[in-house]
Each structure stands twice: as structure tokens, then as C-alpha cells.
Amino acid sequence: MFKKVLIFVETWGLALLLALTFGAFVLATHEIRQEDAALSVWQALMQTALSDADDAQGWTSRMHLLVKATLAWAAVRVYMATAGLKWDHFSARWLARSHVVIVAGREEATDAASPLGVDKSDLALEVALAMAPTHPVVLAMSQIDEGQRSRLWQAGVRVVTDSMPTAQLLEATGVARARMLIAMRDDHAQNIALTHAALSPSMGATQLEIKCMVEPLSVRRDFKVEEYFDPAVLPRIRIFNESEMVARRLLQAFAPDAPVARSDSEGVHVIVVGLGSVGQSILVQLARVGHYRSGRKPKVTVVDRHVGDRWREARQAHPALEHWLQVETEESRLEDVGTEQVRRWLTDERPATVAYVCTKDEIANLRIARLLLRAQDGDRAVQAQVVALDPPGGCVLADFAAHGGHAGRFHLFSLVRDSGGFMSDVDDDRARQFHAGYCARDDEEVQRNPGRPRALANRPWEVLDETLRNANRMTADHFEVKMRAIGCRIVPQAGNTQETVTLAGSELELLSRMDHDRWWADRALDGWRHGPVRDNPSKIHPNMVPYEELSEPIKQLDRDSVLQMVDILAREGMVIVRDTPA
Predict the structure, then answer these.
(1) Which fold has domain 246-420?
(2) Mean pLDDT in each 10-residue stretch from start to end of the chain (582 residues)?
(3) What is the pTM of this model?
(4) CB of 92 within 8 A of CB of 158?
(5) Deepest in the core among 3, 167, 197, 312, taking most CB within 10 A?
(6) CATH number for the segment(s) 76-240
(7) Which fold has domain 434-578?
């Protein structure tokens, strides 16, 4: 309530003072004319304006008082902001409970930041605003401007702005009583330090979960969380990278296979405009989950000003990309791209199914999106959905999405506002259940064959390598792809009036082949290769071959994997129904 009063006064105070001052000026002029009827209106106005405050009486005196109050408004606003921030510091430290703490920006003590530092302040602000309606939020940043502070206060976010050592900052944000800490500082080393400090026994935050950002993508690729933290605290830590989250959710929300999912011959063709960290993450995610009914590799047309260097960088990080994707690159400045060039991308021998426009420049994104939409006008052979990335703080694309007249073929994607909110990506319920089922099946095999060792991945989720956790996440992500391949979708059981689907033998075999290809690609992208005898340290696996070459027991493992996901959905209260007759 205190801050709401401050916000109201701050928002309307100046307008109220100006209105009162003008009213007093008019009344003072009228009062002067009543005292001297010989004065004209102009003379009375000038006399009021030039009057001496010391000798003023009546409404003229009140007018001067209001003028002084208006001139003092800047100082009043500074005081109100200071008072509000002091209240936030007090309430966060002593009153906040079960809240979310977001720490962003740059630690002032290390202002000479690492050259790898990436500014995530705008993203942190949007995350705080997006989470505020459903969670109490404390945002800690070294600097927040007046406009940002007002927006945060109106949303109910507590703001902590003092620059202080890490331990004191965590105490000031009440992290010992928080349920979640999102570490989003510019330097990933500072986020690691924050995580260590928050999980220290001296902090007493025994229930705290931590989401630790590791940027940029080049650092995230080689980052191994188990090298930085003790096994006892690993279950409470989730490492994330913005670009990887964008790519994962983008392919879920705007699936590239949707137009051709049930085809045995047509393939996916994705246009990616911009091969920065988001574009590269899209390629990797597509290679992991882009395994469809037709069996054809996804084709990707990549456009970027520095496409040669960036495509080389992506291949060096993931050499298997070229095996699982058919990539065509085009080096071009986006300012030079024209209608004919865009039409050529779209009307390839394999028509485009979706276009992801993902540069950091929203004006460039807008221009390319408009060209892609215009090039499809009147062409029924190509009707690709166009998805543009909405950078934090942007507004132009949002206006086009709302009023652009694009007949629903343009979509705006925001990591913060779309697809269930920023942190929905770290909901691992399905992945955890799938892993638990895998461990149970492996334990059964060990019991049947006492001399057989437990599988490498047969360990509790809490101590599982992040690579293996990601493999389970990809399994969960791919199930929607499988359902589209057989003309089905997943719906809540409650209220469903359609007949639920029992997978036919041919459908199960198709989905098993798709799942094996997905597993094979996932292993290959993590550096595994084929060999006659499995060698975990050397990352060699004998099953990295086409589905048809697998033994029947190994094929059955893929079938069991598909059926297990059906069981997991049932436990969640979800069922499979058919869109149209197969």
C-alpha cells in the first residue's frame, strides 16, 4: 500500500500541481481585476505573473506557494524514490517469504567485466515483470532507472539496488527464506559465485532452488556443472542458457513439421535468418528432435551476414550436425535482401514449412518477416509460418503482430511472455519420470541376469550428468512430434469426449524407428560414434546404426520407450486422441 501511494503521487503529482497552479493563477488575475476595474485582462495577467511573492495576498499568495511546490517537485520525487527503495530493502530482508530472487546486471566490484560478459538486464526486468502476477519477486540490480522502477513497483516487484558484496546482497534479498534464486548476472563466473554463496550452509537456505545462467553459448557448450559444485547440491541447481531455451521452446511452440507431419515423402524445410547464438541453437535442437515420419533429414536454409564463420563455429562445436541436417548457407546483409531472394528461399524444391527470424535487431526482423509474408501472397504452394524473435524491450514487432494484417501467418515469440512463462522450460517432470522408468527396466534386467552390470545412466536423477538429463528432456520433447506423425494429439482426459487411441502395431513400429533416430542423433551430437563394442569412456556405442540393423531385443527397448511415455501421460491425466482418421 505504501508503494502504491508513492506511485500514485509520483504519477499524478506533477499534473495535479500544474492544474492547481493554473487555477490559482486564473483566480489571482480575477481577484486583481475586481480590485481595479480599470485594468484590462492583459494588464491583470501581467501584474499577476510579475507580482512579488513577499507582498502577495489572497490567491496571488496561494499561486506563489504552488509555484514553489512545483519547482521543488524534482527533489520530492527523488525523496519518494529513495523512501520506496528503502522500504523495499527492509521488506525484502525481513518480511519476504517463499519468494523468487532475481540477481542481474554487473557486480560493481568487478566492473572491468570479462570480455565474455553478456548484458541480461533487459531480460531480467521482463522476467521479473512476467513472474510478478503469480510469484512474490525481489529483483536485485546495481542500477535501475526511474521508468523501470515505476514499472516494477506497479507490478509489485521489490527492488534492491545497492551495490554490496555477494553475501550481504543475498541477505538483503532474503534469500534464506526464498524458494528460488535466478542468477542472471552478466558474467557466468559471478553467477557461479552467487550459487555457491546461496547454497552455503552458513546462508541457511535449505529449500532454495537455483537457476544459474551460463552465457555466452560458447561457454555453455563446454560447461559441466559437476565440475563446479558438490554432488550434494546438484539436485537444487539447474544451469540454463537463453539461446538454448529459445530454440527448445521455439520448436515446440511453432513446430516445423506441422504441415508435413503425416507425409511419407515430404520433408521439413526451415529458413533460419540470423546465425548468432539463437540461430545456432535452433540448428542443434532441430538435429536432436527433427526426426519425422518421412525419415528425411530436415533441410535448413541459413541466411546471415557472417554465415561462413558462424556455420564453421557451429560445426566445430557439433561435428555431427552435417550428418543430421541438410544445410544450405547464404551470406547476405539483411539490408540487401530483396523479394526475389526471399521467394527463392520459399519456393525451393522442398517448399519451406516455417521461417525463424532471429536476429537481435527487431527492425531487421520486421523487414525480413514482411518480405517473407509478401512473397507468399497468392502462392498456395507455399504457406510457411513466419516466426520472429521479440528481443527484450522491443515494441515494433508486437505492434505488427497485433495490427499487421498478416492473416495469422506471422507469430511473435518471446521467451518471457510465451509458452507458459520463462521458467516453464525447467519443468522436468516428464523427463524425470521417463528416467525413473528407464532405471526400473534396467534393474529388472540386472535381476534376471545377475552378472550384468547396471547401465551407465541407471543413477538417480539428482546425480545424473547434465548430458543425460538433456537426453531425457529431448525424449519428452519428441513425443509431440511422434503424435503428429500418426495424426494424433495429447489432450487432458478431463472433459475429453473423443475416443482415446491405442497404438496399432504399425504405428508403434513407426514411432519406435523415429525414437531410435532421435536417440542416435542425440548421442552423435554429444560426441558418441559407432563401434562394435560399447566403450563409455571413449563414447563408442554399437547401436548407432539404422533401426533396421538393430537386434530384436534392442528394437523392443525403443518400443518400450514409446509405450512408457504413453503411461507417463496417463499418470498426468492426459490421453491421446486422433485428429482425423488415419
Answers:
(1) Rossmann fold (3.40.50)
(2) 60 74 85 81 82 80 82 68 83 93 76 56 90 93 86 91 89 95 94 96 92 93 89 88 92 94 95 96 97 96 96 96 96 93 91 94 93 85 87 82 86 73 64 89 88 86 82 91 95 86 94 97 95 92 96 94 90 87 48
(3) 0.84
(4) yes
(5) 3
(6) 3.40.50.720
(7) Globin-like (1.10.490)
